[in-house]
């Protein structure tokens, strides 16, 4: 893409930026610029630009506001000790957005253009990438939406792709702790042929009421079962799951109706390299309950871009509870450390996962 750049005339001061990066939180502060490119059937992708970060002006009839035709990605930029800035498997995020775009009837942004857009924004806003201490990073949010002002139910004839960025602190304040889970038996997230494997806002909107249910029962996250039989574990509100057995096997729910996480696939590769057999298959909720009770399941953990890897504690449901698995050797911790060390340049990248942006 040919990208034009208009620099902000009022960037955040160095003093204010230092304050933000000292305690960035998550999704609260945004960098000085944003990337935009537009699509129409006649012109294709065009008018790629970086310009000052600011509000969008949308017609009340803008299609995405009515029919939720949109996709997004979540990824990070990491500052290495030598000052360079890297991303983790950005081509996989681009490929997943391609798959999501097909499912949402949106135009496909080529992988190389996606990566170029992310890199261009990070280059101009590189001062916003925090130092690695405390697992700080720059969170990147590429997203695409139906921007045509039209109320008919059909694929939009004007689409906008953007990238914005936000400095992020560690997901865990005070150290990593096991998350407690609530099993929702009333709500499901996606069915066969639905949009569960697409990273689209509707999937997250459908999880919110179940997350409220979990919170009302004192739990951190919600567990969804399959929509067809209500038997098989699918995913959490925003994370994929792994179950470690006493013999070293690891089971993770198969995809198809759940999101194919980038961290998820990386853990499958990494665990295999560490000598563990990883099974991707249907995993019944009863296997979870009985496996923990018998001691056959010794460890459970979840993963996602924000948390990387987190251990899972107790599981509660209406009328019952199963406690935290015992007998594991904290495989989650070794996997998490390996991933984080690769991302921040403290360990050799034996898989070729990292791409230098700056």
UniProtKB/TrEMBL annotation:
Which co-factor is required?
Answer: pyridoxal 5'-phosphate
- Catalytic reactions of this protein: L-valine + 2-oxoglutarate = 3-methyl-2-oxobutanoate + L-glutamate; L-isoleucine + 2-oxoglutarate = (S)-3-methyl-2-oxopentanoate + L-glutamate; L-leucine + 2-oxoglutarate = 4-methyl-2-oxopentanoate + L-glutamate
Entry GO MF terms: L-isoleucine-2-oxoglutarate transaminase activity; L-leucine-2-oxoglutarate transaminase activity; L-valine-2-oxoglutarate transaminase activity
Chain positions with N6-(pyridoxal phosphate)lysine modification: 199
Q: What class of enzyme is it?
A: transferase
Q: Which InterPro entries does this chain map to? A: Aminotrans_IV (IPR001544), Aminotrans_IV_CS (IPR018300), Aminotransferase-like (IPR036038), B_amino_transII (IPR005786), BCAT-like_C (IPR043132), BCAT-like_N (IPR043131), BCAT_family (IPR033939)
Q: Name one GO biological process term.
A: isoleucine biosynthetic process
Would the keyword Transferase be found if you checked this record's keyword annotation?
yes
Superkingdom: Bacteria
One family from Pfam that matches here is Aminotran_4
Alphabetical UniProt keywords:
Amino-acid biosynthesis, Aminotransferase, Branched-chain amino acid biosynthesis, Pyridoxal phosphate, Transferase
User: What is the similarity comment for this entry?
Assistant: Belongs to the class-IV pyridoxal-phosphate-dependent aminotransferase family.
Q: Please state what the protein is called.
A: Branched-chain-amino-acid aminotransferase
